Amino acid sequence: MKFKFALTGLVLSAFCFLAHAHSFKLGEISIGHPYARATAAGQASGGGYLKLENKGPDDKLLSASADVAASVELHSMSMEGDVMRMRQVDGIALPKGKTVELKPGALHIMLVGLKAPLKDGDKFPLKLRFENAGEVIVTVNVEAGGGELKHDMMKH
pLDDT tens digits for 92-111? Predict the structure, then answer.
């Protein structure tokens, strides 16, 4: 009986993971699990994250856009001593055969001027434009924040 409950729990956990994990493809570029963190009411900005795997020739993510924000920017984040520095970048290089992860505390997509709070469980379309591969619209899942650095929760 305990085995049956354990197996049921394992299967349900797998379904929960699969419900959140999603991917897209544009040519030789795989786009894994686009997500954004839920935001608080009145929060001016939020962060978007995903994984880009390039199996084709060198490319570059040039821009992103979404109707949920007044503007969408590509950003880098670094720590200089005790000071967090976020800077807009003009693109994110995707070398041939490499994976680039946009994640909290590193490269990310900044949603500036949110039109409404991002709520856990919501989804929204995000258009990505690449130098060579072209454009693709992906679905961004909004997820509750975890224990990672929450730079995307700061007002920008």
Answer: 999 999 999 999 989 999 99
Pairing outcome for strands 29-37 and 134-143: parallel
Assess contact for 61 and 90: CB atoms under 8 A: no
For 19-68, the pLDDT digits (tens) are: 456 899 999 999 999 999 999 999 999 999 999 999 999 999 999 999 99
Q: From CA 49, how far away is CA 143, in angstroms rounded?
A: 11
- No. of helices (H) and no. of strands (E), the chain: 1, 11
CA quadruple 128, 30, 53, 22: dihedral sign: positive
Q: Report helix, strand or coil for 37.
A: strand
- What's the one-letter identity of residue 15? F
CA 14 to chain centre: 21
Query: Structure tokens of 84?
Result: 């967090």
The identity of residue 68, as a single letter, is: V
Cα distance between residue 100 and residue 88, in whole Å:
17
> Which stretch of DSSP H or E encloses residue 83?
strand 83-88
User: Model-level pTM?
Assistant: 0.79
What is the C-alpha separation between 55 and 68, in angstroms, rounded?
30
